[in-house]
Amino acid sequence: MTSEPAEALSGRPAPLLSRLPLLGLRELTLVPAIVLAVVIGALVSNAFLTVDNLLNILQQSSELSVVVIAETLVLLAGRFDLSLESVVGLAPMLGAWLIIRNVEVGGSGIGLDWRLAIAVVLLTGAVVGAVNGFLIVRLRLNAFIVTLAMLILLRGAQLGTTSGKTLFDLPDGYLYLGSGKWASVPVSIWVAAILYLAFGLFLRFHRLGRALYAIGGNAEAARVGGIRVERVLWGTFIVAGMLAALAGLMLTGRIASVVPSQGQNMIFYVFAAAVIGGISLNGGKGRLLGALTGVLLLGILQNVLTLAEIPAFWIDAVYGGIILVALVLSRVTGGQAEES
Amino acid sequence: MRGEAAAPDTADAAGAAIAEVIAVSKRFGRSQALTNVSVAVPTGDSRALVGRNGAGKSTLVAVLTGMLAPDSGRVRFGGADAPGLAERQKWRDRVACVYQKSTLVPTLTVAENLLLNSQPTGPLGLIRWGAVRREAERVLAGWGMELDVEQECARLTVEQRQIVEIARALIQGARFIILDEPTAELEGREVRRLFDRIAHLQRTGVTFLYISHYLEEIYEVCRSVTVLRDGRVVAEGPLAAMPKERVVAAMVGEAGRASLAPGRVASASIAAKPALELRGVTIAGTAADISLRVGAGECVGLAGLAGSGKGEIGDAITGLIAPDAGGIAVAGTELRRSDVRDAQRKGVGTVPRDRHARGIVPLLPIAENMTMTIADRLGPAGVIVPARQQDAAMRMVRSLQIVATSVAQPIKELSGGNQQKAVMARALASEPQVLVLHYPTQGVDIASKEALFGIVERARAGGTAVLIISDELDELAVCDRVLVIFKGRLTREFTAGWDSEALVAAIEGIGHDERTG
Predict the structure, then answer these.
(1) Best label site of A142, B459, B490, B491, fewest CB within 10 Å?
(2) In what helix (H) or strand (E) does residue B325 lie, and over which residues does it extend?
(3) Residue to substitute from B336, B345, B403, interface A, most A β-carbons within 10 A
(4) From the candidates B338, B340, B431, which should be mutated to test the interface with A, based on the most A CB atoms within 10 A?
């Protein structure tokens, strides 16, 4: 793919103004698919194109979308984190467990203030990320297997702590992120939108964000270039854990309780959204905006399948099939055949 | 498999060379790797193939082993034309090469590797593991080699790995074996045993083509020699009639002598505080007690063979590896051990050894690759202001005359020479006091080479201390002094106006080889 440019860049003034492109075409390849899904949705049900339903789609996608940010950070740096979905469950459960006074319904009896409990939730995510980082960066264990083991461990810990009980009757403050509204739009949508904006800019315009691309693209070259590879990776796992914990808090707020299975199987959809959105599993490639289109496509599809009255037991199968088609489409429309 | 090998289409099979290339030429892009090369290795001979880096040795080996098709010319084995490139099995029947890198499957046992895909099978096509083990043992013993065939290949020593690779070639039926720098990683006693083994195999009719940088060795192992320079055969004949001086002279050639800068006066005086100072740097197993000083505005070469430890010394200065002992200082300030960022902050810039592995992030834009070392200076609080990154990149593109359509282009789309300039730009971006350059003109065309030397010259005129780590004569020619490192120790120092044959001899370790002598 070596190009032989006709003239030296230094010779002409014109390319001087050529800005680093803000949007590549790659990020927009899912837009036709999203449009198609919306059209089908509108045809299938009158209820689809209503403000309430669209907000509903966004709200239901908001938790997933925040975990997708977390996974995107890790994937860009060329690593994996499967344990994020268990943090989505465990972190808010720990907070709720500390708040609830009644031991009978699965609480700790401590009665922690909800503000402190939220701090505990985020701290839990950070600690899990730090442990993952230690095992993967310091001990150089394989990220896939480390985070898989962590996933199983945390799921078990969550069940063990509450003996499988669903925790409910939580203070409003604790549930606010998933239940409150700003300007009649759910807070969780605002939070997701702000995070996408902030992390999108971070990945584009901050040297740590760029360091993730460099590490995922060629860690050795990044090291020679003066990037503290280990430190950045470790930080990435910690931030990813905190984002997953925040997503868990949003989910708990929306359903006003913590069920023992909270977050279960979410990681599959996280990976699906990121990959059909153009994030490379090999690291160093992809944009957050692309991942967002992946999330939106999955959210819309889920909604359309429900409205289309596909038998509930078959929804997952149809959903999986559509994800496969989306993968193929994104490869075909993505232009250049990328190395897998 | 060997039985069906094509019958010779010529009658002169008797006395025909076991392997032969006839008038072979090969070109890669703009560089001519081989020009009209003819080499014939008679059966039972052991031939040395020598030449400096880039002389065309690897290309010739690739042509001889069927990994590359020559642009013109022919390859013949035992008087018959070589099989088509796709017929890997037929090539393996005729020739095998033991490379410096392992070609064994590391997770399988010695026996499995020896009989891979030809394991003895029993009823239902199931593998008989007992027979696999016995067969492997029988083969090794038959060739006078001993090894536990049950062990995993990942755990073999370099010496044992070579035994397995040679045995595998013999099992395939090859009687012509190419050894590519087999002693580079061996200890003295292992070298001894390797030579004994080669002698033993020679007596049983195996022919060797032996590639080595250690000239002392080839006089011990080989009967004849072929010298390549710039893709041509420049000398050939029995070693008995070829003294070392003639071999070295042929390797260096006239051009090498002429390209030397005529006695440039060492302009730099080493001040009380040298720009770069190494005191007794020791890296276990690679370098021992290296002390050197480079003054501001001075250009010093560190020359040595692959594996001499010169690359590791460079890596220790740039903070990529931690020395086991000794200290490194830049302008009197000690560097922290193994801390790339610290070295950079204190004024070290580097062009790493392998551009693809360590120099570039292929998918990222040129601008980003070049400004990686100064990412923290492009805006407040770690923010990278695109305009500032763009400006910095454009300045570098202009000053280094990098040819690109836009600095937003992924760097992988640039030509090799321009990629190398971009890596140089990255090193220079932080305005270093010390430049550590590993083979700064590796794999670039003549024009880029000149340009890169010009850039080095400018940096040095501006007071930067330059350390060039290389064994290329034209790269060393720009140096005020050259220090020679052989097997981890500094052995000689040459000042401007040196004799290049003496320099090459020192690099090749002539007169310094205690191992085999």
Answers:
(1) A142
(2) strand B325-330
(3) B403
(4) B340
